Amino acid sequence: LLPPEVCNLLNPAAIYANNEISLGDVEVYGFDYDYTLAQYSDSLHSMIFNAAREILIQQYKYPGEIRKYDYIPDFAIRGLHYDVQKSLLMKIDAFHYVQLGTAYRGLQPVPDDEVIDLYGGTQHIPLYQMSDFYGKGPSLKQFMDIFSLPEMALLSSVVDHFLAHSLEFDQTHLYKDVSDAIRDVHIKGLMYQWIEKDMEKYILRGDETHAVLTRLVNHGKKLFLITNSPFSFVNKGMKHMVGKDWRDLFDVVIVRADKPTFFTDRRKPFRKLDESGVLQWDKINHLQKGTIYRQGNLFDFLHLTGWRGSRVLYFGDHLYSDLADLTLRHGWRTGAIIPELEREINIINTEQYMHSLTWQQALTGLLERMQTYRDAESRQVLAAWMKERQEIRSITKNLFNPRFGSIFRTFHNPTYFSRRLVRFSDLYMASLSCLLNYSVNFTFYPRRTPLQHEAPLWMDQLCTGCMKTPFLEEMVHIR
């Protein structure tokens, strides 16, 4: 059914727009550091997993037997929710429904009927249980950043061990202990040490980051950096990627910013660091180029720089900590860095995915149109179609991840992650290097996708691969 030119339509190096934005109107570019300016290799995740596992054993006195669990690279995906009281890791769509077949307790899948029973006979998670503005609800926690991948794997491994050995445990304590152990890996500087020791191994796309920054400066754009990482770590990474004079490219550099509090709390003043990284005591009346600042808050930042509104574009990888406040409270433009996008687009471009999706859409259209036939033979055919459709949906899901599928979709709905991505970012892309494919004056136009009541009948026909449609033959005569 597929014409040969359908596959490979999507470009993994493209920038995708949720909102119309002209780069020509952007005068100031801001950046997070980790997973934005600096992209890291996946080998870092197993290091974080192993170190946090040892902290659980040594500091929190967890059973030494959990050492038998190694990091599973493709176990989880970003954007999953964890029900603390039920020890349940699951994928939830934009309408608060659990995608059946994507709920795990420990490393084992939970049957669909058990999931439905756990939530009172429904797949729906009530609003009051869902995550708040920053992904932290009363009983459900959402894992939104890339560093959460080893956290989900470790949490599931420890739960798996306790369940396999019938050990009684407090779900809340276990979740907090694992979360604190992962946090300690960062606070104690272990991750920084690994990266600094072998930057060639852990830092990716360094040359491209250099090219993006120098290009923007050469076109007269102002640059700033706001990161939660310490200066010594950022300094070594930027020297590796950009060169020893990297600070000359930035008009303002802020480290240890404590995002997202940086964007909402007015109380913390800026402090200056000297060349050796020692905090200074003098009052900050203006932000100087070449000076490193610590902490501070966005309200003082806006007052001291005058950089406001849509002439500022800020890039980050964490939808909540980096982007949400900036777009909703301050009117900045935002760009989300989603490294997973490159792999997912490459999968979408495969012939296997396109054939599966096309036939799935065809079966869906047949089921919708033929369901009015209620005789025994018709019901038998409909049941066969329904079974085949479900099988194809599972095959399509497994192309992305065998347990949880795509980070952007459940079987047909957007995920909870996708809805937040659309709400909090004007643009999204796999890496900053995608900017190199566009002029600094380029205007991004989001595609007008039809609402359900706007979609004409020929769209359904087009999805089935029927190319003799009004879209191709008759629409040219319609004005």
Structural class: alpha/beta
Instruction: Going across the biggest sheet, name each strand in turn.
Output: 1-17-16-15-3-11-12-14-13
Shape: globular
Total helices: the number is 17
User: Which percent range fits the helix content?
Assistant: 25-40%
Cofactor: Mg(2+)
Pfam family, one: 5_nucleotid
Protein name: 5'-nucleotidase domain containing 2
GO molecular function: 5'-nucleotidase activity; metal ion binding
Give a quick rundown of the structure.
With 479 residues, the chain is α/β, with parallel strands linked by helices. 40% of the residues lie in helices and 14% in strands. Helix 1 packs across helix 3 (148-164), helix 1 runs antiparallel to helix 5 (190-197) and helix 13 runs antiparallel to helix 14 (376-400).
Characterise the protein shown here.
Helix content is 40%, strand content 14%. The protein contains 17 helices and 18 strands. Strands 1-17-16-15-3-11-12-14-13 form a nine-stranded mixed β-sheet, with helices on both faces. The radius of gyration is 25 Å and the shape is globular.
Which key terms come to mind for this protein?
479 residues; alpha/beta; nine-stranded mixed beta sheet; five-stranded antiparallel beta sheet; globular; disordered C terminus; HAD_sf
